[in-house]
Design a protein that fits this description.
By secondary structure, this protein is mainly α. It has one domain. The protein contains 13 helices and no strands. Helix 8 runs antiparallel to helix 11. It is a multi-pass membrane protein.
């Protein structure tokens, strides 16, 4: 029905009702807006009064103090209350020997926590203390040896033995550092692993310096040749060990092979000396027997480490003590002490025999064995 057909009064009434409804809605919206404004004002006033009561500066200091206290408390709890974890809960970069099932350190985020962990019993305790005590032992021996007066031990002997002492101290010191800081972070773990491998190479090279020096005491070219050779092989082993893949568990056997091969390279000068002087004179005069015992200890320790015995036979029983890595450390310390005893006997023999009287052509012979033959002729004469 159109508006024209409706009575005029009814149309006016509808318009009035519509206008009244619109006015009511407008009034309601104004009232709501006024209420909202009042609430906001009350909230701001409440904040203002609260800030006045406590002080804006005090609130900031309080929040900062609470945050600092919470951080220090969390760090204290973490460093003093950490617990050993099973192997499967370690991060991937900390997983090395899956046959050690329990007793591992979690990741520790501070150097202080790592150092303090050496007094906690877990999988690395034996590894740390075997080489920590060994390092201290060789530091004491080195200080005692170097402190001898020159009329008892000449400076040449001090220099030669210092090469061996330095290699032993660095090898065991880097090993102790590795097992102490291994759990700090992935970056620190990679760094200390590489230092550990460098220490092994340095011990090997340093061990052969006094052995070669006294074996070819009167043969200058042989001393220089073999020292340079073993030094080059040691540098090669260090370069190989700088690879990140070399430190992974998958290359455990390769690591053992590389360092066993480096050690076996010392057989070359040993065979040279035996061929020229004979077997029994070499055993009696140059302590070849002690050097063979040293080689057996090194190779046995490295082989046990490579095959991971005894934990491979009894997983979980040797998590804390008598695991293969600890056995390797004990063998390394024992081999270094045996080597020291052997080269001391060699030094005493050479110093007892006296200085060499060098005949013509001795230092720079035409044939590699000429100087040794001349030395034998000198002894016979």
């Amino acid at each position: 029905m159109d508006a024209e057909t409706l009575p005029r009064g009814s149309v006016d009434s509808k318009v009035d009702r519509r206008q009244a409804s619109m006015e009511t809605n407008n009034q309601q919206e104004l009232a709501d807006a006024q209420d909202s404004k009042t609430d906001l004002v009350e909230q701001e006033e409440g904040k203002f009064h609260c800030a006045d009561y406590l002080g804006m500066k005090d609130i900031t200091q309080l929040v900062q103090a609470m945050a600092q206290s919470a951080e220090e408390y969390a760090r204290l709890i973490w460093t003093r209350r950490w617990h050993v974890v099973p192997f499967h809960r370690l991060p991937a970069w900390l997983k090395d020997n899956e046959l050690l099932l329990r007793g591992h350190r979690p990741q520790l985020y501070t150097l202080r926590a790592c150092v303090r962990s050496i007094f906690r019993v877990r999988t690395e305790t034996g590894n740390i203390w075997t080489h920590l005590l060994g390092c201290a032992c060789f530091v004491a021996i080195a200080v005692f040896f170097v402190a001898q007066p020159n009329n008892h031990v000449q400076w040449q002997e001090k220099v030669v033995f210092s090469c061996f002492f330095s290699g032993a101290v660095m090898c065991m010191g880097f090993s102790c550092l590795l097992h102490t800081l291994l759990c700090h972070s992935e970056l620190v773990s990679r760094i200390v692993n590489k230092l550990d491998y460098c220490g092994i190479a340095l011990l090997t090279v340093g061990s052969f310096v006094p052995y070669i020096y006294y074996s070819f005491y009167c043969v200058f070219w042989a001393k220089m040749f073999y020292v340079i050779l073993i030094s080059m092989l040691g540098c090669g082993a260090i370069v190989v060990s700088m690879s990140d893949k070399f430190a992974t568990p998958a290359f455990r056997s390769l690591r053992a092979i590389v360092f066993i091969a480096l050690g076996l390279s010392g057989l070359i000068p040993c065979i040279h000396f035996i061929c020229v002087n004979g077997f029994w004179p070499s055993v009696n005069d140059c302590s070849v027997g002690w050097l063979f015992l040293m080689a057996i200890l090194y190779i046995s320790g490295a082989s046990i480490y490579a095959v991971r015995i005894p934990e491979r036979l009894f997983p979980g029983r040797f998590d804390i003590w008598f695991q293969s890595h600890q056995i390797l450390h004990v063998f390394v310390v024992a081999a270094a002490l045996v080597h020291y005893h052997g080269v001391v006997k060699m030094a005493n023999y050479r110093l007892t025999v006296g200085d060499c009287q060098l005949p013509a052509g001795f230092l720079f012979p035409k044939h590699p064995f000429d100087s040794v033959v001349l030395l034998q002729q000198l002894k016979v004469a």
